[in-house]
Design goal:
The structure is a single chain. The radius of gyration is 20 Å and the shape is globular. It has about 325 residues and is α+β, with helices and mostly antiparallel strands. The longest helix has 22 residues. Helices cover about 30% and strands about 20% of the residues. Strands 1, 2, 3, 4, 5 and 6 form a six-stranded antiparallel β-sheet that branches.
Amino acid sequence: MLRAAGHSLDAKMETSMSGTDATLWPDLTSPTLDETARTLQLWSQIVGKVRLRYTPWVNHSWHATLYVSARGLTTSLFHIGDRAVEMEFDVVDGALVIRDAAGPERRIALVAGGIADFHAQVRGALAEMGLEVTIDDRPNEIPDAVPFSQDRAPRSYDPAAAVALWRALVRIDRVFNAFRTRFLGKSSPVHLFWGSFDLAVTRFSGRRAPPHPGGIPNLPDAVTREAYSHEVASAGFWPGGAGIAPSFYAYAYPTPAGYAEASIRPDAARFDTSLGEFLLPYEAVRTAPDPEAMLLDFLQSAYEAAADLAAWDRHALDCDHGRHGSPRKV
């Protein structure tokens, strides 16, 4: 069995991830980050729902997510009829870019304002490209949410805070993908769920789970139950809110007995009883001598706690850390 503390993070991940410069991990303590992230969440739901509407269902809603890109967040390529489309939040240039493989492109400025205005601009841009798109007008996973087309309340957007968040996601995406190489079983991509606006990576034991109770605000229980149809050990990053600073998280479903009392590394990690998951403040990682090693240790120890307490077949599921240019030995 692989134990992160015992193999020196696979020789510092083949050296390529060693010598981490903490300056690569941006400061996310800006007072404007919270509101900027909430605005991005609502914008991303509009864009994500376009992909959701026109992409065949894939297990656990993986067909609807966004991905970290070299400029921000992207849907990746998807198809609307015979048209091949990509929608990308380019936070560097401050625009939502809608591209068609046939050539047309539209750009919508990312600026403060009402969600209804952004929603109308997206629909208008798609219509100009000959794409008449209809989506569910209701935000998901947000209590007391206002339909996009009716949400005219002024929303804040700080471009600098958005870029800082994206740069953090770039580093996190790198570590999450490295962590993903240590598992032979079914694993999700590293992707961003726009409902809760968190970057996540999830491992599966292969066994069925008891039906999820549902009850997530503005999300059909059928979606939640399909998402948690099998046992999971999941981890991710959330930019914070409701009094919680930007944090990494880890949880298991169903939660095995003793999970909340498990010893999780590093010492800065704690179990949040209200959320039912472990949290590790982003700031603790950012300011660590080796942020990537600390984050990997958190991911690994949280997975080990969940898998061991739930009696996963780790001999069949775990593997050594992925190496550059070398196939896994079988």
